[in-house]
Structures are given as C-alpha cells and as structure tokens.
Amino acid sequence: MAPDGFVYYSRMCFSCPAFGPTACMMTSSPWSARRAFLLAAGAGAATPVLAQVDVGAASSLRKLVSAPALEQAAARQYQQMLSEAQARRVLVSRSHPSLQRLHAIARRLMVYAAPWNERARQWRWEVSLIDSAQINAFCMPGGKIVFYTGILEQLRLSDDEAAMVMGHEMAHALREHARERLAKTQGTHLALRLGAQLLGLGDLGQAAASFGGQLLTLKYGRSDESEADLVGLELAARGGFEPAAAVSLWRKMGQATGRQSGGPAFLSTHPTGPARIRELTQNLPKVQGLYEAARRGKAPTG
Ligand SMILES: [Zn+2]
C-alpha cells in the first residue's frame, strides 16, 4: 500500500494455482456435460464440437501472424497501460468490490475458454479496472481484460450483463480477431515484401510490437462482432449467467450511445441496433439449457 493509502497493485492473475479449485468442480457429476464439452475441444481457435452457437471456423488468414509474438506484444502493452494508470492513480485497488466482482465473473467464464482456443490453456488471464467515466472494456490477445468503471456505473450493469460484456471481449481474444486484423494489415504486406521464410517470431514480433498501441482501440468488422456476441453469450450461459442479459445489455448500450462523455470508446467500436439485438434474441434458446444446467449444478449459496 502506498503512503497515501492507495493500493496500486490491482491486477489478479488467473494462472494455475487460483484456477485449481474451479477446475476441480468439473470432475463432479453435475459438471460432466461441461467436461465433455471441454474434452471435445479442437486445436487452435476452432469451434468446439459441442458448441451451441454457430460461428464457423476462425479465419485461417490469422495464421500469417505468430500468436506467441502477438500475445507478448499485447502483454507489454497491457503492462505499460497499467503503469500509466498507476502513475495517474486511476488503477482500481484489487480489494475494491467492483474489481472483486469482475474477478468472480471471470472465474466462472474462463473455465470454458479453452475449447474455443487451445492456446488459452497457457494464457495468464488477468482482469484490471480503470477508474474512468468512459464506457469501455476490452480483452487483449493472451487474455488481458480491462474494464473501465464507466461501463459498470453508467450502464448500471447487473452481474449477468457484466458477464456478457466480459464474455464478448474474451471471445474476441479466443477467436483471435486482433491476430486476424494484424494479418490483414501487416502480415500480408510482410509476406509479400520479405517472403514466407521471414514469417518467423522476430519479424512478426516487431510487427506485432508496432501494432501494440492499436490493440487497445481495435475496431473489428461486423462478422467479428457477431462472433464475439455469440461465443460470449455461450461462455456466459455456461458460467451460469442469464442469457437474456445479452439483450438488456445491448439495449442499455443503445440508450447510452450519444450521451457518452470523455470519448466514444466502446460505443463507437460496438454499434448497437436492431440487427445485433435480433441475432442475440434468436440465439437465446440455444444456450438457455446450458444456463439452466449451470444453475442446477451450482452449489447452493447463503
Ligand atoms: Zn466487440
């Protein structure tokens, strides 16, 4: 703790030790369906065999870019952002209830991440909270999740709705949308200019590093957004969060559009509208059973 009483260290790492007890829950009988889901996972950013939503295969173009190089660049960018937030005293304390709440949500979602991307088994998931009025949240390649207090407070998100935001952002990382974007903008150029033999860690590491700053402000295409909505919806449902919250979340987003202060952030990169809400609504029945099974399998609290 700093002399002024402000706890600067707010990150929480979800690597193996903290992960253990949660993973153990999957070996008990109510969780057998989930274990089957996990076991059915394919390699890379594949669609799990038992997935309920239909998003097809991830773009093969992304393979032009080294995933480890991009994840390393993202980790550096994340650390730099945390350092800056710490210096400006806007990095929310790990003990703060809002960050604790986000950690609890993250734990319930990330156990279902690996079937969507084998690499996620090695990711060091982290969740940070920045004190800012901006409505914003993102997950960088490799599982570095950031929420701004503005999205929680201005939209008055319920746990279910916050889980939908988190699931959506985790899905962007799991489906490697940033890697795909980088491949489209820089990987292809490198391949043409330098030849395929140079598509190794060094050159693409450099490309990924130069791309680093953009990782925080990426604007994805409509199909990527649709994928993130559906994969996020399924992650959240498996985690025991009510699917209908996806619809109420995007209605709130729609209402907030136009009255956002301090920069457009999330809302400018996530246009909401009837099509988005309609697609989510159509997919609710597909994941409702997962949600209900998760609720039944959950140990009673209180
Ligand atoms: Zn998105």
TrEMBL record:
GO MF annotation terms: metal ion binding; metalloendopeptidase activity
Cofactor note text: Binds 1 zinc ion per subunit.
The answer on whether this UniProt entry bears the keyword Protease reads yes
Q: Which InterPro entries match?
A: Mito/Outer_Membr_Metalloprot (IPR051156), Peptidase_M48 (IPR001915)
The UniProt record lists the Peptidase M48 domain at: 101-282
User: Per UniProt, which keywords does this protein have?
Assistant: Hydrolase, Metal-binding, Metalloprotease, Protease, Zinc
A Gene Ontology cellular-component term: membrane
What biological processes does GO assign it? proteolysis involved in protein catabolic process
Q: Which domain of life is it from?
A: Bacteria
| Pfam families noted in UniProt | Peptidase_M48
- UniProt key word Metal-binding: yes
Instruction: Look up the record and name the cofactor or cofactors this protein needs.
Output: Zn(2+)
Q: Which family does it belong to?
A: Belongs to the peptidase M48 family.
Q: Which PANTHER family match?
A: METALLOENDOPEPTIDASE OMA1 (PTHR22726), METALLOENDOPEPTIDASE OMA1, MITOCHONDRIAL (PTHR22726:SF1)
Q: What is this protein called?
A: Peptidase M48, Ste24p
